[in-house]
TrEMBL record:
Residues 1-22 form the signal peptide. It comes from Anaeromyces robustus. Disulfide bonds join 33-45, 38-52. Residues 23-65 form the Chitin-binding type-1 domain. This is Glycoside hydrolase/deacetylase.
């Protein structure tokens, strides 16, 4: 009996303090980062200034100085390249998707056509679908034909803080070469996997030199990948930022482990219905930021 009480007490303690993160994510219901690591404002565990600096979530990790743990880069603005996490217009909403192309994308595009919504797709070259395939080519060309914006999420979904400059250049140019081959344009927008690189001058300078103007983050994370497209949870996050009266940049995924066509489409349709009811206009990233989508 004493043993059972001990177990129950331990469970209660974990519930009140947040269980340890097992997948590199943190914050909210995702749990805490491992000891000695920080929880970034975008909900990822790490030890560099990107994770431990501005926006670090002290409740879910260590936000103390990391000078002894990792080399940090002084955060300065790089003219012509910037990280963004919201739309300029307070009533604009940028609906964005990561990790495509994927097999449900044509159904998603059909739904967006029906809803008269334009979105932005941050795609990979070799993540869950081979961009060289005829299926990927059809999806990307349909995205472009329908008026959606196509942007970079790196070739292989690489953490851009953990690769060399030459590897970063390869990750970006290899993908953009295929995008150009399919639609005749190279993207000017990118989204770093894991939200990495914010404040890293060398990364910013490299991306700028390649023709990129914006790293597009988010202020609404639907956590569709973690909650299997749970509509109630996603809308609760939207509501939080709608009440703050800010332009919204939301994060959805074309793919996650247990995604289905139904969960994908149901969530997107619910988001569109809710945001329009709140007076928001769905826009692509170029209209969200007031910048050109392509180089």
């Amino acid at each position: 009996m004493k043993y059972i009480k001990f177990i129950l007490a331990a469970v209660a303690l974990i519930s009140s303090t947040g269980a340890a993160s097992a997948n590199g994510r943190c914050g909210g219901n995702l749990g805490k980062c491992p000891s000695g690591t920080c929880c970034s404002k975008y909900g990822y565990c790490g030890t560099t200034e990107d994770y431990c600096g501005a926006g670090c979530q002290a409740k879910f990790g260590d936000c103390k100085s990391t000078k002894s743990k990792a080399k940090t880069t002084k955060k300065e603005k790089v003219t012509g390249f910037q990280y963004y996490d919201h739309c300029v217009n307070k009533k604009h909403w940028a609906l964005t998707f990561d990790d495509g192309p994927y097999k449900y994308d044509l159904a998603l595009l059909s739904l967006l056509r029906k809803l008269n919504v334009k979105a932005t797709f941050f795609i990979n070259g070799a993540n869950v679908m081979d961009i060289k395939s005829s299926q990927a080519k059809e999806i990307i060309q349909t995205m472009n034909k329908d008026g959606h914006v196509i942007a970079s999420h790196t070739w292989s979904h690489a953490n851009i803080e953990e690769i060399s400059k030459s590897e970063l250049i390869s990750e970006m140019t290899k993908l953009e070469d295929y995008i150009y081959k399919y639609i005749g344009k190279k993207p000017a927008f990118m989204r770093p996997p894991y939200g990495a690189g914010d404040g890293n001058n060398e990364i910013a300078k490299t991306l700028k030199s390649l023709g990129y103007t914006a790293a597009c983050m988010w202020n609404v994370d639907t956590l569709d990948w973690d909650k299997t497209g749970n509509v109630d949870y996603a809308l609760s996050v939207f509501k939080k930022y709608v009440n703050k009266n800010v332009g919204i940049l939301s994060l959805n995924h074309n793919y996650y482990g247990d995604i289905s066509e139904k969960t994908l489409l149901t969530l997107v349709e619910a988001e569109v219905k809710y945001m329009r009811s709140q007076g928001y206009t769905p826009v692509t990233m170029d209209k969200c930021l007031g910048l050109k989508a392509y180089q």
